[in-house]
């Protein structure tokens, strides 16, 4: 049986950052035996992108089982990552978003109760 292949799509602005390092540790934890493709560390990416554009990345995604992506901190998704997501969906990759800004989205107990009331729950 071949090992799982995971594609890590993220903005160039995150290349070489602590966030990228945390994401990779999470992916390694979730898929300990998988091959994880990180475009930030691909030695052939510059030449491949010059020659093929985004098709270079799409050809790699074609062989992946999972595509994990990270949006910008404002939750926007850049054009390159968006293209990778769309291609992954088209190729029947399992596409999952890495969590972002979790604490700022948390409701207090009282806010949760109020929200549930507004939704018609008691």
List keywords for this structure.
alpha/beta, 5 helices, four-stranded parallel beta sheet, Rossmann fold, single chain, 4 strands, 41% helix, 122 residues
Structure explained in plain terms:
The structure is a single chain. The chain has 5 helices and 4 strands; from the N terminus they run E-H-E-H-H-E-H-E-H. The chain has one domain (5-118): Rossmann fold. It has helices at residues 18-30, 45-52, 55-61, 79-90, 109-118, and strands at residues 5-9, 35-37, 66-69, 94-97.
In short:
By secondary structure, the chain is of the alpha/beta class. It contains 5 helices and 4 strands.
Name the poorly predicted regions: none
CATH class label: Alpha Beta
Number of strand segments: 4
Secondary structure tally, helices = 5
Helix-strand category = alpha/beta
Rounded average pLDDT:
92
End-to-end Cα distance, whole Å, is 50 Å
The residue fraction in helices comes out at 40-55%
Beta fraction: 5-15%
Main sheet properties: 4 strands, parallel
Radius of gyration: 17 Å
Instruction: Using the alpha-carbon principal axes, give the shape.
Output: elongated
Kindly identify the CATH topology: Rossmann fold
CATH architecture: 3-Layer(aba) Sandwich
Q: Count structural domains.
A: 1
Going across the major beta sheet, what is the strand order? 2-1-3-4
Output the helix-strand order: EHEHHEHEH
